[in-house]
Amino acid sequence: MQRFVCEQNIVHFERLLNEATEATVQHTVRALLASAKRQLALLNSAASGADATPFEQRRRQQTDAATIRQQFQPEFDSSPHPYMLLDPGPGLLIVDVNDAYAAATFISRSDVVGRSLFEIFPDNPDDPLADGVSNLYSSLRIVGETGRAHAMKVQRYDIRDGDGTFVERHWQPINSPIHDAAGHLVYLLHHVEDVSAQVASRP
Predict the structure, then answer these.
(1) Which of 65, 57, 13, 61 is nearest to 34 (CA)?
(2) What is the model's pTM?
(3) Which H or E element spans position 46?
């Protein structure tokens, strides 16, 4: 029911946005649209993640996933580039992050493993137009459905610093699938580069 309401609100707000001519009305509707898209992404993430594979089939794939992870773990750990490994199932649980990712996002590896992606990285509540959650979920869903990597546009996605204060950040994200030998999706690999300095230097 909640999902249906969100979907209807998105259609409604998109139509209003196309019809609105006043700047204040447009800003209000954009904020409502962003909120509805965020809520829908959170609902879908919790219910099905980015993988439409039935639960029983996914459970049978877990042993393959452990073997696959052992194969790339050394490279994952030592990479200077920020990487996060996600379970594509319901909740989009964080399987692991490397040191570069932890440093770039002010998190501790031990604190985030096993927790939901959007619990750890929510949208900035002080930015009513924030679309990091909805855009990231859309990208991960594309990867889950197509089995192919997806490069997002540069995305503003504020993160919490060590004190819990949101700080502005802009990222270049690339999301990729990791499959087992049978072609089943076992992980999602999320790679980001912090491009905040480049964005800030633009005229």
Answers:
(1) 13
(2) 0.89
(3) helix 23-48
